[in-house]
Amino acid sequence: MTVPLQAALWGLLAGGALVLGAAIAWFADVPQRAIAGITAFGAGVLISALSFELMDEAFARGGIAATSLGFVAGAAIFTGANRLLAYRGARHRKRSAHGAQPSEDEHAGSGSAIAVGALVDGVPEAIVIGLTMLEGGAVSTVAVAAIFLSNVPEGLSSAAGMRRAGRSAAYVFGLWGAIAAASGLAAWAGAALFVGASADVVAAITATAAGAILAMIADTMIPEAFAETHDAAGLITVLGFLAAFLLSKAAG
Q1: Cβ of 29: how many Cβ atoms within 10 Å?
Q2: How far apart are CA 217 and CA 94, in angstroms?
Q3: Can you say whether the dihedral through the CA atoms of 154, 157, 160, 161 is positive or negative?
């Protein structure tokens, strides 16, 4: 099996956690506080992964200049896209509370904007999976585990909000199924399109993904976590960070 195909399968696995989270939200009545706590934990996991896996790897490959430029560029690209999507009705796409996400009647076109927003949120994470396979052909199990663990609360929180906004099961599971498939494609692209690229380019792309992920955490996951857990959000986020950090050390 080729390396890009392996990357695609790993990306599909990580993206499939979004469908798992959505299924939990759809078929179980999960309390708001529990959703917020799980989201805080997932945010901590992602912060740890981008710190010790992505940024360290980018710096080792390309040095401070390529890493810094890519990191800021990724955050800027995500922020610009997120701002545009907010005007289209996708500002609270990761929020689970009743009334947080608009229905199609309340904001025409918000369903499409939420779908695009989910794609914008998920693609950088999946590209990272492919990039980790460029050197040696082995995937970073820490990166896959971290993305999987963070995708469960992302799918859970967002799908809970979609359900309360009156969106259908076909929409919810169609959306997350498509994002899971797109994650596999993005992971394939990360492994296939950058083979033979210079260390600076790979470092910049890796850091760009890290910047986009961190901006996504701050803009969409942390607000959902704080909305219900309040003062406990920081502690739960730290526990998620520690879990991913320990996983990275055990794998290393």
Answers
A1: 6
A2: 10
A3: negative
How far is residue 82's CA from residue 77's CA, in Å, rounded to a whole number? Answer: 8
pLDDT digits (tens, 9 = 90+) for 100-141: 565 555 555 555 566 677 777 778 888 989 988 887 778 888
For 104, phi and psi rounded to 5 degrees?
-65, -30
| Start-to-end C-alpha separation, the chain | 25
> What mean pLDDT do residues 208-220 have?
89
Closest CA to 126 of 136, 140, 116: 140
Output DSSP code: residue 101. Answer: S
Averaged pLDDT, 57-71: 93
Structure-token pair, residue 54? 């992505």
Give the CA distances from residue 41 to residues 3, 13, 82, 154, 181, in Å, rounded to whole numbers and listed in that order: 31, 20, 22, 11, 25
Structure tokens at 162: 């979609």
